[in-house]
Design goal:
37% of the residues lie in helices and 16% in strands. It contains 23 helices and 21 strands. Strands 10-9-8-7-11-12-13 form a seven-stranded mixed beta sheet. The chain has a six-stranded parallel beta sheet with strand order 2-1-3-4-6-5, sandwiched between helices. Helix 16 links the parallel strand 14 and strand 15. The longest helix has 22 residues. It is globular and about 75 Å long.
Amino acid sequence: MGKQTVAEQFVDILARAGVRRLYGVVGDSLNPVVDAIRRNSAIDWIQVRHEESAAFAAGAEAQLTGKLAGCAGSCGPGNLHLINGLYDAHRSMAPVLALASHIPSSEIGTGYFQETHPDQLFRECSHYSELISSPQQMPRVLQTAIQHAVGRRGVSVVSLPGDIAARPAPERAEEHALVTSRPTVRPGDTEIDALARMVDEADRVTLFCGSGTAGAHEEVMAFAERVKAPVGHALRGKEHIQYDNPYDVGMSGLLGYGAAYEATNECDLLILLGTDFPYNAFLPDDVRTVQVDVRPEHLGRRSKLDLAVWGDVRETLRCLTPKVRPKTDRRFLDRMLKKHAEALEGVVKAYTRKVEKHIPIHPEYVASILDEEAADDAVFTVDTGMCNVWAARYLTPNGRRRVIGSFTHGSMANALPQAIGAQFLDRRRQVISMSGDGGFTMLMGDFLTLVQYDLPVKVILFNNSSLGMVELEMLVSGLPAYGTGNHNPNFAQLARAAGAYAERVEKPKHLRSALRTALHHKGPALVDIVTDPNALSIPPKIKAEMVTGFALSASKMVLDGGVGKMVQMARSNLRNVPRP
Protein backbone atom coordinates (compact mmCIF):
# COMPACT_ATOMS: atom_id res chain seq x y z
CA MET A 1 0.00 0.00 0.00
CA GLY A 2 1.40 3.38 -1.03
CA LYS A 3 2.16 6.18 1.36
CA GLN A 4 -0.85 8.35 2.26
CA THR A 5 -0.96 11.89 0.90
CA VAL A 6 -2.01 14.95 2.88
CA ALA A 7 -5.25 15.04 0.87
CA GLU A 8 -6.01 11.42 1.72
CA GLN A 9 -5.26 12.03 5.37
CA PHE A 10 -7.47 15.13 5.28
CA VAL A 11 -10.41 13.14 3.88
CA ASP A 12 -9.90 10.27 6.33
CA ILE A 13 -10.02 12.63 9.31
CA LEU A 14 -13.17 14.31 8.01
CA ALA A 15 -14.84 10.93 7.65
CA ARG A 16 -13.74 9.94 11.14
CA ALA A 17 -15.30 13.17 12.45
CA GLY A 18 -18.65 12.14 10.94
CA VAL A 19 -18.64 14.21 7.73
CA ARG A 20 -20.46 12.21 5.07
CA ARG A 21 -20.56 14.77 2.25
CA LEU A 22 -18.35 17.59 1.02
CA TYR A 23 -20.28 20.13 -1.06
CA GLY A 24 -18.40 22.20 -3.60
CA VAL A 25 -17.16 22.87 -7.14
CA VAL A 26 -14.04 21.06 -8.36
CA GLY A 27 -11.00 22.99 -9.56
CA ASP A 28 -7.23 22.77 -9.96
CA SER A 29 -5.95 23.34 -6.42
CA LEU A 30 -8.81 21.26 -5.02
CA ASN A 31 -8.24 18.29 -7.32
CA PRO A 32 -6.04 16.22 -4.97
CA VAL A 33 -8.72 16.33 -2.26
CA VAL A 34 -11.58 15.57 -4.67
CA ASP A 35 -9.63 12.62 -6.04
CA ALA A 36 -9.03 11.36 -2.51
CA ILE A 37 -12.79 11.56 -1.91
CA ARG A 38 -13.38 9.59 -5.14
CA ARG A 39 -11.35 6.76 -3.66
CA ASN A 40 -12.90 6.91 -0.17
CA SER A 41 -16.25 5.15 0.26
CA ALA A 42 -16.98 6.88 3.58
CA ILE A 43 -17.52 10.34 2.13
CA ASP A 44 -19.20 11.68 -1.03
CA TRP A 45 -18.38 14.67 -3.19
CA ILE A 46 -21.53 16.68 -3.93
CA GLN A 47 -21.13 18.83 -7.02
CA VAL A 48 -23.11 22.07 -6.86
CA ARG A 49 -23.22 24.88 -9.42
CA HIS A 50 -22.09 27.66 -7.09
CA GLU A 51 -19.90 27.48 -3.99
CA GLU A 52 -22.29 29.73 -2.06
CA SER A 53 -24.83 26.93 -2.43
CA ALA A 54 -22.26 24.49 -1.06
CA ALA A 55 -21.85 26.49 2.14
CA PHE A 56 -25.61 26.95 2.57
CA ALA A 57 -26.18 23.22 2.03
CA ALA A 58 -23.54 22.26 4.58
CA GLY A 59 -24.95 24.77 7.05
CA ALA A 60 -28.47 23.38 6.71
CA GLU A 61 -27.22 19.83 7.20
CA ALA A 62 -25.34 20.87 10.33
CA GLN A 63 -28.38 22.73 11.72
CA LEU A 64 -30.63 19.71 11.24
CA THR A 65 -28.24 17.16 12.75
CA GLY A 66 -26.13 19.23 15.15
CA LYS A 67 -23.14 17.37 13.68
CA LEU A 68 -20.19 18.50 11.60
CA ALA A 69 -20.78 19.12 7.89
CA GLY A 70 -18.33 20.18 5.20
CA CYS A 71 -17.90 22.27 2.07
CA ALA A 72 -15.01 23.24 -0.17
CA GLY A 73 -13.90 25.77 -2.75
CA SER A 74 -10.93 25.97 -5.07
CA CYS A 75 -8.31 28.70 -4.85
CA GLY A 76 -9.15 32.40 -5.07
CA PRO A 77 -12.58 33.04 -6.60
CA GLY A 78 -13.75 29.50 -5.83
CA ASN A 79 -13.41 29.67 -2.07
CA LEU A 80 -14.45 33.34 -2.00
CA HIS A 81 -17.89 32.22 -3.16
CA LEU A 82 -18.25 30.24 0.09
CA ILE A 83 -18.21 33.32 2.27
CA ASN A 84 -21.89 34.29 2.37
CA GLY A 85 -23.07 30.77 3.20
CA LEU A 86 -20.33 30.47 5.81
CA TYR A 87 -21.42 33.72 7.44
CA ASP A 88 -24.92 32.28 7.65
CA ALA A 89 -23.73 28.98 9.10
CA HIS A 90 -21.52 30.72 11.64
CA ARG A 91 -24.26 33.07 12.81
CA SER A 92 -26.68 30.12 12.97
CA MET A 93 -24.21 28.27 15.23
CA ALA A 94 -23.93 25.42 12.72
CA PRO A 95 -20.74 23.31 12.97
CA VAL A 96 -19.23 23.50 9.48
CA LEU A 97 -15.70 22.74 8.29
CA ALA A 98 -14.78 24.62 5.12
CA LEU A 99 -11.80 23.69 2.99
CA ALA A 100 -10.41 26.71 1.14
CA SER A 101 -7.87 25.33 -1.27
CA HIS A 102 -5.04 27.69 -2.16
CA ILE A 103 -2.54 28.59 -4.87
CA PRO A 104 0.87 26.81 -4.94
CA SER A 105 2.60 27.41 -1.62
CA SER A 106 5.76 28.79 -3.25
CA GLU A 107 3.71 31.52 -4.97
CA ILE A 108 1.87 32.87 -1.95
CA GLY A 109 2.65 36.56 -1.56
CA THR A 110 3.67 37.17 -5.19
CA GLY A 111 0.37 38.35 -6.65
CA TYR A 112 0.00 35.01 -8.42
CA PHE A 113 -2.99 34.13 -10.63
CA GLN A 114 -6.16 33.88 -8.48
CA GLU A 115 -4.23 34.74 -5.32
CA THR A 116 -6.20 35.70 -2.23
CA HIS A 117 -5.47 35.10 1.44
CA PRO A 118 -8.34 32.85 2.61
CA ASP A 119 -6.84 32.31 6.07
CA GLN A 120 -7.37 36.04 6.64
CA LEU A 121 -10.58 36.52 4.64
CA PHE A 122 -12.65 34.03 6.61
CA ARG A 123 -11.62 35.05 10.11
CA GLU A 124 -14.70 37.19 10.75
CA CYS A 125 -17.08 34.33 9.90
CA SER A 126 -15.29 31.53 11.74
CA HIS A 127 -13.98 30.47 15.11
CA TYR A 128 -10.79 29.19 13.50
CA SER A 129 -9.12 29.96 10.16
CA GLU A 130 -5.59 28.75 9.48
CA LEU A 131 -3.25 27.96 6.60
CA ILE A 132 -1.47 24.63 6.23
CA SER A 133 1.87 25.57 4.69
CA SER A 134 3.67 22.31 5.45
CA PRO A 135 2.62 18.64 5.56
CA GLN A 136 4.02 18.52 9.09
CA GLN A 137 1.08 20.65 10.27
CA MET A 138 -1.25 17.76 9.52
CA PRO A 139 -3.22 16.38 11.17
CA ARG A 140 -3.06 18.82 14.09
CA VAL A 141 -4.44 21.87 12.26
CA LEU A 142 -7.42 19.93 10.87
CA GLN A 143 -8.15 18.29 14.20
CA THR A 144 -7.99 21.68 15.91
CA ALA A 145 -10.34 23.14 13.29
CA ILE A 146 -12.86 20.34 13.82
CA GLN A 147 -12.84 20.81 17.57
CA HIS A 148 -13.40 24.55 17.21
CA ALA A 149 -16.36 24.00 14.88
CA VAL A 150 -17.99 21.34 17.04
CA GLY A 151 -17.05 22.67 20.45
CA ARG A 152 -17.92 26.31 19.81
CA ARG A 153 -20.73 25.62 17.33
CA GLY A 154 -19.75 27.51 14.23
CA VAL A 155 -17.44 27.56 11.25
CA SER A 156 -13.80 26.54 10.95
CA VAL A 157 -11.79 27.13 7.77
CA VAL A 158 -8.64 25.31 6.71
CA SER A 159 -6.68 26.79 3.81
CA LEU A 160 -4.69 24.15 1.95
CA PRO A 161 -2.45 24.79 -1.10
CA GLY A 162 -2.94 22.21 -3.82
CA ASP A 163 0.76 21.24 -3.92
CA ILE A 164 0.78 20.59 -0.16
CA ALA A 165 -2.36 18.44 -0.49
CA ALA A 166 -0.58 16.25 -3.07
CA ARG A 167 2.52 15.65 -0.93
CA PRO A 168 3.07 12.61 1.30
CA ALA A 169 1.60 12.93 4.76
CA PRO A 170 4.15 12.95 7.60
CA GLU A 171 5.07 9.60 9.07
CA ARG A 172 3.95 8.72 12.60
CA ALA A 173 1.65 11.74 12.69
CA GLU A 174 -0.32 11.84 15.90
CA GLU A 175 -4.09 11.52 15.40
CA HIS A 176 -5.99 11.97 18.63
CA ALA A 177 -9.60 11.28 19.52
CA LEU A 178 -11.88 13.87 17.97
CA VAL A 179 -14.54 15.89 19.76
CA THR A 180 -17.73 15.28 17.77
CA SER A 181 -20.42 16.36 20.27
CA ARG A 182 -20.87 19.05 22.90
CA PRO A 183 -21.49 18.60 26.62
CA THR A 184 -24.35 20.21 28.47
CA VAL A 185 -23.60 23.33 30.50
CA ARG A 186 -25.09 23.62 33.96
CA PRO A 187 -25.11 27.03 35.70
CA GLY A 188 -23.55 27.37 39.11
CA ASP A 189 -25.65 27.07 42.27
CA THR A 190 -25.19 30.79 42.98
CA GLU A 191 -26.87 31.78 39.71
CA ILE A 192 -29.65 29.21 40.10
CA ASP A 193 -30.42 30.39 43.62
CA ALA A 194 -30.38 34.04 42.56
CA LEU A 195 -32.77 33.33 39.70
CA ALA A 196 -35.08 31.35 41.95
CA ARG A 197 -35.29 34.32 44.35
CA MET A 198 -36.12 36.68 41.50
CA VAL A 199 -38.88 34.39 40.26
CA ASP A 200 -40.36 34.04 43.76
CA GLU A 201 -40.34 37.82 44.20
CA ALA A 202 -42.08 38.51 40.89
CA ASP A 203 -45.85 38.65 40.46
CA ARG A 204 -45.84 38.56 36.65
CA VAL A 205 -43.23 36.41 34.87
CA THR A 206 -42.90 36.15 31.08
CA LEU A 207 -40.71 33.73 29.15
CA PHE A 208 -39.32 34.72 25.75
CA CYS A 209 -37.77 31.81 23.86
CA GLY A 210 -35.33 31.41 21.01
CA SER A 211 -33.60 28.55 19.21
CA GLY A 212 -31.71 27.70 22.39
CA THR A 213 -34.90 26.03 23.65
CA ALA A 214 -34.41 23.19 21.15
CA GLY A 215 -34.80 19.96 23.08
CA ALA A 216 -36.19 21.80 26.12
CA HIS A 217 -39.90 21.97 25.26
CA GLU A 218 -40.96 19.80 28.19
CA GLU A 219 -38.86 21.78 30.67
CA VAL A 220 -40.15 25.16 29.40
CA MET A 221 -43.77 24.01 29.66
CA ALA A 222 -43.25 22.66 33.17
CA PHE A 223 -41.67 25.90 34.34
CA ALA A 224 -44.35 28.03 32.68
CA GLU A 225 -47.04 26.01 34.47
CA ARG A 226 -45.28 26.31 37.81
CA VAL A 227 -45.02 30.13 37.65
CA LYS A 228 -48.09 30.78 35.43
CA ALA A 229 -46.01 32.54 32.77
CA PRO A 230 -47.05 33.47 29.24
CA VAL A 231 -44.56 32.15 26.67
CA GLY A 232 -43.55 34.20 23.64
CA HIS A 233 -40.93 33.37 21.05
CA ALA A 234 -38.63 34.76 18.40
CA LEU A 235 -38.79 33.41 14.85
CA ARG A 236 -36.00 30.89 15.44
CA GLY A 237 -37.77 29.65 18.56
CA LYS A 238 -41.12 29.02 16.85
CA GLU A 239 -40.47 25.44 15.75
CA HIS A 240 -39.22 24.43 19.19
CA ILE A 241 -41.70 26.10 21.51
CA GLN A 242 -45.03 26.96 19.90
CA TYR A 243 -46.53 23.48 19.55
CA ASP A 244 -48.47 21.89 22.44
CA ASN A 245 -48.12 25.17 24.31
CA PRO A 246 -51.11 26.28 26.40
CA TYR A 247 -49.16 29.41 27.42
CA ASP A 248 -48.42 30.64 23.89
CA VAL A 249 -48.77 34.38 23.28
CA GLY A 250 -47.14 34.54 19.86
CA MET A 251 -44.06 36.05 18.34
CA SER A 252 -42.37 39.39 18.83
CA GLY A 253 -40.40 41.40 16.30
CA LEU A 254 -41.15 42.96 12.94
CA LEU A 255 -42.93 39.79 11.79
CA GLY A 256 -44.64 39.36 15.14
CA TYR A 257 -48.25 38.67 15.99
CA GLY A 258 -50.44 38.16 19.02
CA ALA A 259 -49.63 39.35 22.53
CA ALA A 260 -45.91 38.60 22.78
CA TYR A 261 -45.00 42.28 22.81
CA GLU A 262 -47.49 43.05 25.61
CA ALA A 263 -46.41 40.03 27.63
CA THR A 264 -42.74 41.02 27.53
CA ASN A 265 -43.43 44.67 28.31
CA GLU A 266 -46.11 44.32 31.00
CA CYS A 267 -44.44 41.70 33.20
CA ASP A 268 -42.22 42.49 36.18
CA LEU A 269 -39.71 39.72 35.36
CA LEU A 270 -38.71 38.82 31.81
CA ILE A 271 -36.68 35.65 31.32
CA LEU A 272 -34.95 35.34 27.95
CA LEU A 273 -34.35 31.67 27.22
CA GLY A 274 -31.81 30.72 24.56
CA THR A 275 -32.41 33.78 22.40
CA ASP A 276 -30.09 36.34 20.86
CA PHE A 277 -33.10 38.34 19.66
CA PRO A 278 -31.51 41.34 17.92
CA TYR A 279 -34.35 43.87 17.95
CA ASN A 280 -33.93 45.53 21.32
CA ALA A 281 -36.63 48.06 20.45
CA PHE A 282 -39.13 45.30 21.19
CA LEU A 283 -37.59 44.50 24.57
CA PRO A 284 -38.50 46.54 27.64
CA ASP A 285 -35.96 48.78 29.35
CA ASP A 286 -37.90 49.14 32.61
CA VAL A 287 -38.48 45.46 33.47
CA ARG A 288 -36.18 43.21 35.49
CA THR A 289 -34.56 40.94 32.93
CA VAL A 290 -32.71 37.63 33.12
CA GLN A 291 -31.01 35.92 30.20
CA VAL A 292 -30.11 32.23 30.02
CA ASP A 293 -27.76 31.23 27.21
CA VAL A 294 -25.15 28.58 26.50
CA ARG A 295 -23.00 31.20 24.74
CA PRO A 296 -21.69 33.62 27.38
CA GLU A 297 -20.85 36.24 24.76
CA HIS A 298 -24.59 36.55 24.03
CA LEU A 299 -25.43 37.52 27.59
CA GLY A 300 -26.42 41.17 27.87
CA ARG A 301 -25.46 42.27 24.39
CA ARG A 302 -29.06 43.15 23.46
CA SER A 303 -30.49 44.52 26.70
CA LYS A 304 -29.45 45.46 30.20
CA LEU A 305 -29.59 42.40 32.46
CA ASP A 306 -30.31 42.09 36.14
CA LEU A 307 -28.95 38.54 36.05
CA ALA A 308 -26.90 36.66 33.45
CA VAL A 309 -27.05 32.86 33.56
CA TRP A 310 -24.54 30.84 31.56
CA GLY A 311 -26.04 27.45 30.82
CA ASP A 312 -28.18 25.25 28.60
CA VAL A 313 -31.85 26.13 28.80
CA ARG A 314 -32.78 22.52 29.49
CA GLU A 315 -30.28 21.99 32.28
CA THR A 316 -30.98 25.41 33.78
CA LEU A 317 -34.73 24.79 34.02
CA ARG A 318 -34.20 21.28 35.38
CA CYS A 319 -32.23 22.83 38.22
CA LEU A 320 -34.46 25.88 38.64
CA THR A 321 -38.02 24.56 38.53
CA PRO A 322 -37.91 22.53 41.76
CA LYS A 323 -36.45 25.54 43.60
CA VAL A 324 -39.18 28.07 42.82
CA ARG A 325 -42.45 28.29 44.72
CA PRO A 326 -45.51 27.36 42.64
CA LYS A 327 -47.66 30.37 41.78
CA THR A 328 -51.45 30.17 41.88
CA ASP A 329 -52.40 33.59 40.53
CA ARG A 330 -53.19 33.20 36.81
CA ARG A 331 -54.54 36.70 36.22
CA PHE A 332 -51.57 37.98 34.22
CA LEU A 333 -51.31 34.76 32.17
CA ASP A 334 -55.04 34.68 31.43
CA ARG A 335 -55.10 38.36 30.47
CA MET A 336 -52.26 37.79 27.99
CA LEU A 337 -53.96 34.70 26.55
CA LYS A 338 -57.12 36.75 25.98
CA LYS A 339 -55.15 39.58 24.37
CA HIS A 340 -53.41 37.05 22.16
CA ALA A 341 -56.68 35.52 20.96
CA GLU A 342 -58.22 38.95 20.38
CA ALA A 343 -55.21 40.12 18.39
CA LEU A 344 -55.31 37.07 16.15
CA GLU A 345 -59.07 37.34 15.67
CA GLY A 346 -58.53 40.90 14.48
CA VAL A 347 -55.98 40.11 11.79
CA VAL A 348 -57.60 36.92 10.53
CA LYS A 349 -60.40 38.94 8.94
CA ALA A 350 -57.97 40.47 6.47
CA TYR A 351 -57.10 36.98 5.28
CA THR A 352 -60.63 35.60 4.94
CA ARG A 353 -62.15 38.22 2.62
CA LYS A 354 -62.70 36.50 -0.78
CA VAL A 355 -59.26 34.93 -0.53
CA GLU A 356 -60.27 31.83 -2.49
CA LYS A 357 -61.31 34.00 -5.44
CA HIS A 358 -58.63 36.68 -5.35
CA ILE A 359 -56.45 36.97 -8.46
CA PRO A 360 -53.47 37.35 -8.29
CA ILE A 361 -53.42 34.75 -5.53
CA HIS A 362 -52.93 35.91 -1.96
CA PRO A 363 -49.54 34.60 -0.74
CA GLU A 364 -51.17 34.02 2.67
CA TYR A 365 -53.58 31.61 1.02
CA VAL A 366 -50.68 29.75 -0.60
CA ALA A 367 -48.87 29.39 2.71
CA SER A 368 -52.05 28.25 4.46
CA ILE A 369 -52.80 25.53 1.90
CA LEU A 370 -49.13 24.46 1.85
CA ASP A 371 -49.23 24.07 5.63
CA GLU A 372 -52.26 21.79 5.31
CA GLU A 373 -50.83 19.67 2.50
CA ALA A 374 -47.24 19.29 3.75
CA ALA A 375 -46.13 16.21 5.66
CA ASP A 376 -46.17 16.19 9.44
CA ASP A 377 -42.38 15.77 9.47
CA ALA A 378 -41.55 18.06 6.56
CA VAL A 379 -38.44 20.21 6.52
CA PHE A 380 -39.15 23.74 5.30
CA THR A 381 -36.36 25.98 4.07
CA VAL A 382 -37.45 29.59 3.86
CA ASP A 383 -36.14 32.45 1.75
CA THR A 384 -35.39 35.74 3.46
CA GLY A 385 -38.00 38.42 2.84
CA MET A 386 -41.73 37.91 2.57
CA CYS A 387 -41.38 34.12 2.74
CA ASN A 388 -40.20 34.67 6.32
CA VAL A 389 -43.54 36.34 7.02
CA TRP A 390 -45.60 33.52 5.56
CA ALA A 391 -43.54 30.87 7.35
CA ALA A 392 -43.78 32.70 10.67
CA ARG A 393 -47.55 33.03 10.43
CA TYR A 394 -48.75 29.95 8.60
CA LEU A 395 -46.44 27.01 9.17
CA THR A 396 -47.79 24.97 12.06
CA PRO A 397 -45.05 23.43 14.23
CA ASN A 398 -45.68 20.06 15.83
CA GLY A 399 -42.34 18.96 17.25
CA ARG A 400 -41.49 16.95 14.12
CA ARG A 401 -41.36 19.59 11.43
CA ARG A 402 -38.25 21.69 10.97
CA VAL A 403 -37.91 25.23 9.64
CA ILE A 404 -34.52 26.43 8.41
CA GLY A 405 -33.79 29.91 7.11
CA SER A 406 -31.22 32.67 7.14
CA PHE A 407 -32.92 34.05 10.21
CA THR A 408 -29.85 35.69 11.75
CA HIS A 409 -27.68 36.57 8.77
CA GLY A 410 -30.66 37.53 6.60
CA SER A 411 -29.24 36.50 3.24
CA MET A 412 -31.27 36.21 0.08
CA ALA A 413 -31.24 32.96 -1.93
CA ASN A 414 -30.79 30.64 1.04
CA ALA A 415 -33.85 28.39 0.69
CA LEU A 416 -32.93 26.35 -2.40
CA PRO A 417 -29.35 25.46 -1.39
CA GLN A 418 -30.40 24.76 2.20
CA ALA A 419 -33.02 22.37 0.82
CA ILE A 420 -30.23 20.53 -1.00
CA GLY A 421 -28.38 19.89 2.26
CA ALA A 422 -31.58 18.88 4.05
CA GLN A 423 -32.62 16.44 1.32
CA PHE A 424 -29.24 14.71 1.12
CA LEU A 425 -29.66 13.82 4.80
CA ASP A 426 -32.80 11.81 4.07
CA ARG A 427 -34.22 11.32 0.58
CA ARG A 428 -37.42 9.88 2.04
CA ARG A 429 -38.25 12.97 4.10
CA GLN A 430 -40.29 15.73 2.48
CA VAL A 431 -38.18 18.88 1.96
CA ILE A 432 -39.93 22.04 0.82
CA SER A 433 -38.15 25.19 -0.34
CA MET A 434 -40.37 28.23 0.20
CA SER A 435 -38.68 30.46 -2.35
CA GLY A 436 -39.33 34.02 -3.43
CA ASP A 437 -38.74 34.86 -7.07
CA GLY A 438 -35.89 37.20 -6.09
CA GLY A 439 -34.07 34.63 -3.98
CA PHE A 440 -34.73 31.76 -6.36
CA THR A 441 -33.30 33.53 -9.40
CA MET A 442 -30.18 34.57 -7.49
CA LEU A 443 -28.97 30.96 -7.18
CA MET A 444 -31.28 29.38 -9.75
CA GLY A 445 -28.42 27.43 -11.29
CA ASP A 446 -28.54 25.01 -8.40
CA PHE A 447 -32.03 23.90 -9.36
CA LEU A 448 -29.98 21.81 -11.82
CA THR A 449 -28.33 20.15 -8.82
CA LEU A 450 -31.74 18.81 -7.80
CA VAL A 451 -32.17 17.30 -11.25
CA GLN A 452 -28.61 15.97 -11.47
CA TYR A 453 -28.92 14.05 -8.20
CA ASP A 454 -32.67 13.40 -8.55
CA LEU A 455 -33.22 15.07 -5.19
CA PRO A 456 -36.98 15.16 -4.46
CA VAL A 457 -36.96 18.76 -3.18
CA LYS A 458 -40.22 20.63 -3.77
CA VAL A 459 -39.70 24.29 -4.68
CA ILE A 460 -42.81 26.32 -3.91
CA LEU A 461 -42.17 29.60 -5.66
CA PHE A 462 -43.98 32.70 -4.38
CA ASN A 463 -43.74 34.69 -7.59
CA ASN A 464 -44.86 38.29 -7.12
CA SER A 465 -42.31 39.66 -9.64
CA SER A 466 -40.82 41.94 -7.01
CA LEU A 467 -38.52 42.21 -4.03
CA GLY A 468 -41.50 42.44 -1.70
CA MET A 469 -39.78 43.09 1.61
CA VAL A 470 -37.61 45.80 0.08
CA GLU A 471 -40.74 47.45 -1.34
CA LEU A 472 -42.26 47.37 2.13
CA GLU A 473 -39.18 49.01 3.61
CA MET A 474 -39.30 51.74 0.99
CA LEU A 475 -43.00 52.37 1.48
CA VAL A 476 -42.69 52.56 5.25
CA SER A 477 -39.84 55.04 4.82
CA GLY A 478 -42.00 57.22 2.60
CA LEU A 479 -40.10 56.34 -0.57
CA PRO A 480 -41.59 55.15 -3.85
CA ALA A 481 -40.69 51.59 -4.78
CA TYR A 482 -37.74 51.72 -7.16
CA GLY A 483 -35.46 49.00 -8.51
CA THR A 484 -37.58 46.26 -6.95
CA GLY A 485 -39.46 44.88 -9.95
CA ASN A 486 -38.47 41.59 -11.58
CA HIS A 487 -39.29 40.72 -15.19
CA ASN A 488 -39.71 36.98 -14.73
CA PRO A 489 -40.08 34.10 -17.17
CA ASN A 490 -42.49 31.22 -16.76
CA PHE A 491 -40.48 29.32 -14.16
CA ALA A 492 -42.48 26.13 -14.69
CA GLN A 493 -41.37 26.02 -18.31
CA LEU A 494 -37.75 26.51 -17.25
CA ALA A 495 -38.02 23.73 -14.67
CA ARG A 496 -39.57 21.33 -17.19
CA ALA A 497 -36.80 22.16 -19.66
CA ALA A 498 -34.29 21.21 -16.95
CA GLY A 499 -35.98 17.83 -16.53
CA ALA A 500 -38.10 18.38 -13.40
CA TYR A 501 -41.82 18.18 -12.81
CA ALA A 502 -43.35 21.65 -12.75
CA GLU A 503 -46.64 23.47 -12.83
CA ARG A 504 -47.66 27.13 -12.98
CA VAL A 505 -50.64 28.31 -10.95
CA GLU A 506 -52.42 31.58 -11.65
CA LYS A 507 -55.88 30.87 -10.19
CA PRO A 508 -56.57 29.94 -6.56
CA LYS A 509 -58.97 27.14 -7.52
CA HIS A 510 -56.04 25.22 -9.03
CA LEU A 511 -53.71 25.75 -6.09
CA ARG A 512 -54.44 22.83 -3.78
CA SER A 513 -54.36 20.17 -6.49
CA ALA A 514 -51.12 21.59 -7.89
CA LEU A 515 -49.42 21.56 -4.48
CA ARG A 516 -50.71 18.09 -3.67
CA THR A 517 -49.48 16.66 -6.96
CA ALA A 518 -46.04 18.26 -6.61
CA LEU A 519 -45.62 17.19 -2.99
CA HIS A 520 -46.37 13.58 -3.91
CA HIS A 521 -44.11 13.57 -6.97
CA LYS A 522 -41.14 11.24 -6.44
CA GLY A 523 -38.51 13.54 -7.93
CA PRO A 524 -37.69 17.25 -7.88
CA ALA A 525 -40.66 19.52 -8.49
CA LEU A 526 -41.43 23.22 -8.81
CA VAL A 527 -44.74 25.03 -8.47
CA ASP A 528 -44.61 28.57 -9.89
CA ILE A 529 -47.42 30.46 -8.14
CA VAL A 530 -48.27 33.96 -9.35
CA THR A 531 -49.00 35.87 -6.15
CA ASP A 532 -50.32 39.33 -5.38
CA PRO A 533 -47.48 41.88 -5.03
CA ASN A 534 -49.86 44.18 -3.14
CA ALA A 535 -50.72 41.72 -0.39
CA LEU A 536 -49.25 43.92 2.35
CA SER A 537 -51.29 46.11 4.63
CA ILE A 538 -49.37 48.78 6.53
CA PRO A 539 -51.00 50.43 9.55
CA PRO A 540 -51.05 54.23 9.10
CA LYS A 541 -49.29 54.90 12.40
CA ILE A 542 -46.01 53.54 11.02
CA LYS A 543 -43.59 56.40 10.33
CA ALA A 544 -40.39 56.51 8.33
CA GLU A 545 -38.14 56.84 11.37
CA MET A 546 -39.64 53.68 12.89
CA VAL A 547 -38.08 51.23 10.43
CA THR A 548 -34.50 50.66 9.41
CA GLY A 549 -34.23 47.41 7.50
CA PHE A 550 -35.82 44.84 9.78
CA ALA A 551 -35.56 46.94 12.95
CA LEU A 552 -38.77 48.46 14.29
CA SER A 553 -38.48 51.04 17.03
CA ALA A 554 -41.98 52.14 17.94
CA SER A 555 -44.65 49.75 16.68
CA LYS A 556 -45.54 46.17 17.50
CA MET A 557 -46.57 45.12 14.03
CA VAL A 558 -46.10 46.19 10.43
CA LEU A 559 -47.75 43.42 8.48
CA ASP A 560 -51.40 42.45 8.53
CA GLY A 561 -52.78 39.50 6.65
CA GLY A 562 -53.87 36.55 8.70
CA VAL A 563 -52.27 33.99 10.94
CA GLY A 564 -53.55 30.60 9.78
CA LYS A 565 -54.05 27.84 12.33
CA MET A 566 -52.67 29.96 15.15
CA VAL A 567 -56.15 31.39 15.59
CA GLN A 568 -57.50 27.93 16.36
CA MET A 569 -54.60 27.31 18.73
CA ALA A 570 -55.29 30.57 20.57
CA ARG A 571 -59.00 29.78 20.81
CA SER A 572 -58.17 26.35 22.21
CA ASN A 573 -55.85 27.83 24.84
CA LEU A 574 -58.46 30.42 25.74
CA ARG A 575 -61.01 27.69 26.43
CA ASN A 576 -58.66 26.40 29.12
CA VAL A 577 -58.73 29.68 31.02
CA PRO A 578 -60.67 29.06 34.27
CA ARG A 579 -63.97 30.90 34.49
CA PRO A 580 -64.79 32.75 37.74
